[in-house]
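QA checklist item 7 of 12: single-chain prediction sanity check.
[x] sequence parsed
[x] length recorded as 287
[x] structure emitted
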Amino acid sequence: MQHPSTTLRLSGYHAVIEPDRWVPDAYTLVVDGTPQSHVNLYDPTQLFFEYVQRIGHVIDQLGMPGEPLTAVHLGAGALTLPRYIEATRPGSRQQVVELEADLVDLVRAELPLPKHASIRVRYGDAREMLGKLPAGLRGEVDLLVADVFSGARTPAHVTSLEFYTEAVALLKPTGVIAINVADGPGLVFARGQASTLLSATKDVAALGEAQILKGRRYGNIVLVGSPTTLPLDWMPRLLAGGPHPSRVVHGRELTDWIAGAPIVTDATAIPSPPPSKSIFQVRPGKS
């Protein structure tokens, strides 16, 4: 069966939208063989990928329930989290930055956004576009999500202290930055990212599945940072929300988890490690 697809002009990656075999009206965006986003058009509050669910729990804790947010998303994917915010917090103002314009064209054509949603998509490199966002956003953003991938890896230039310092400058004093970090055994990359984010913010927590946080297998960790102290009463709710088993590493435990990992700068930054093809890659010809 032929699924909607395109070859992305800038990267040359193949992007395809595949229907979920088990959930009606749900679809997965696959780029370069790697599942990147999942969308349920009938119920955009349903978040499929575990790390996205964790970011969703963080979003739920911001401000009052249902209160509109000002959000910036670095990396569009299938616009899963902008849809979630629009569904759970109508009236939110959202800016999305994406390098691959033809990826967004494919998503918008096949998985239309809700009508009347205030979701503005801007095209360009995530780091370069930080300085080109409307001046009125500076110091006014409730949530900034950094989920930037080229294929299955995060590019080096969006992993450094210089990048995080510029990104955090957009946040309100009580705002939150949420970062999707993919790493494997040993967690050298993830620990360095936590150390770097902690240097750019006042407080950081790491959310993830217990075995991934222990560095026993490849997976996704969500780093959450804020210019102010993260409310400790978030933690039990973030854990209770699942997916399980789940941990939140914070405070002294986070310091021990970082284990002295050096701060990443532009001079030392490297891309995130690639996953094993047996973990995330979709086999050619399978749908």
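[x] summary fact logged: The domain at 50-258 is CATH 3.40.50.150 (Rossmann fold).
[ ] second reviewer sign-off
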